[in-house]
Every structure is written in C-alpha cells, then in structure tokens.
Amino acid sequence: MKNIFSWSVLLSMFTIFFYWFGYWYIQGYTSYFGYDIEFYDIPIQYILISGFLKSPTETIIFVVILIILSLLSQFTRNQKKYFFHRFSEVFVYTCFFVYLSIEKIISKIFNYTHTNAKK
After folding, report:
1. pTM of the shown model
2. Residues near 5 by Cβ (< 8 Å), separated by ≥ 6?
3. Is residue 3 domain-shared with residue 45, that is, in the same domain?
4. Distance CA 32, CA 24 (A)
5. Tens digit of pLDDT for each residue in 46-80?
6. 10 is in which domain, residue-wise?
7. Within this chain, do residues 80 and 98 fall inside the same structural domain, yes or no?
8. Is there a single domain that holds both residue 21 and residue 70?
9. What's the CA gap between 22 and 16, in Å, rounded?
C-alpha cells in the first residue's frame, strides 16, 4: 500500500480520470446532434484537455480523495483501531440520544391523544 502513490501510478490515474470526463463531455455534444464520437476521429490529446478544462470541481474532489487515502495509508494498526473504537462510541451515544429524544416525542403525542380520547 505504500507504493500506490508513485508518480507513474498517479499520472495514470489522472490520465484515466481526464480521459473519462473528456470522452463523455464530447460524447454528449456529438450525440445531441445525432453523430457518434468515432465519426470525428478526435485525438486523445484533445479529449484529455477537454476533460481537464470541463471538470475543475471533480478534479479537486479527486485530489482530496487521493490526499485522504495517502494519509490513511500512513496510520498504524493500533491508530486505526483507536479511531474505530472512538467513532463507534460516538455513533452509539448519538443513536442512543436520538432514540431517547424520539421516545419522548412519541410518548407526548400518545399521551396527548390518549387524554383527549377520554373526554
């Protein structure tokens, strides 16, 4: 897992990412006019450039995901275990608090309808 972020792998990931966005961007325009993308014989460089220019938000999200993955790969097993246990505790306490809140609301609704039904 430590060698996943070498330059060749990173460059290949970005190339595939930009090609995918560029291809579907151009495919959308050509299919709107009733043509296929192979009809125009568009070079790969143009597809990569259009993918880069038309996907700034997705590129930023992709870079953030890569940064998060690289940070997560640096944690040791004990650190991952610690974070998992802390997250589990917070999740359980939050679910318990939500359950108690909903239980109080439901009991107030049923008490209100039950007392009005007796009258």
Report:
1. 0.53
2. 66, 70
3. yes
4. 12
5. 888 888 888 888 888 988 988 888 777 777 888 88
6. 1-74
7. yes
8. yes
9. 10
The number of domains in the chain is 2
CA gap 66, 88 in Å, rounded: 25
Q: Are residues 41 and 84 in the same domain?
A: no
Residues 45 and 2 in one domain: yes
Sign of CA dihedral 22, 25, 30, 34: positive
| 100 and 115 inside one domain | yes
**How does DSSP classify residue 87?**
H
Residue that the structure tokens 């608090």 belong to: 97
Q: 92 and 113: one domain?
A: yes
Instruction: Retrieve residue 65's tokens.
Output: 């995901």
Q: What's 43's DSSP letter? A: -
Q: Which residue has the tokens 């290949």?
A: 12
The structure tokens listed for 113 are: 């309808």
The one-character DSSP state at 4 is T
Contact 17, 48 (CB under 8 A): no
